[in-house]
Amino acid sequence: LFALFDSLYLLSNGRTVYFGKAADSVAYFSSMGFPCPNYMNPTDYFMRQIIQLDDASTSRVSRMVDVWLTMENTMPAPKRPDYATQDEVAAYTESRLGLE
């Protein structure tokens, strides 16, 4: 199921821990010292890492948020998605559906 996701947005108490390509998330968590075990669903592993149950987990998540904020401030702005304009949709509808 994880492989079907294009993007992944992980929050803990409303703070971003990760936002980006799902395919890059395992390497990202590994780079912070949280490698996903073999044969474990990455989403399950991430959820276990970002849940805050005690002081140790709260501290861990705070570090993750700080790392994300640092990375986010150094990343280039995301490319605007290429969406079809209304005219392009109308032209497609007319040409493909014969609604002229």
UniProtKB/TrEMBL annotation:
Q: Which InterPro entries match?
A: ABCG_dom (IPR043926), Plant_ABCG (IPR052215)
Domain ABC transporter family G stretches: 1-79
- GO terms of molecular function: ABC-type transporter activity
Record's keyword annotation contains Membrane = yes
The answer to whether keyword Transport applies is: yes
**Alphabetized Pfam families for the sequence:** ABC2_membrane_7
**Which keywords describe this protein according to UniProt?**
Membrane, Transport
Q: Which family does it belong to?
A: Belongs to the ABC transporter superfamily. ABCG family. Eye pigment precursor importer (TC 3.A.1.204) subfamily.
PANTHER family hit by this protein: ABC TRANSPORTER G FAMILY MEMBER 11 (PTHR48042:SF11)
Question: Can you name this protein?
Answer: ABC transporter family G domain-containing protein
Q: Which organism is it from?
A: Aphanomyces stellatus
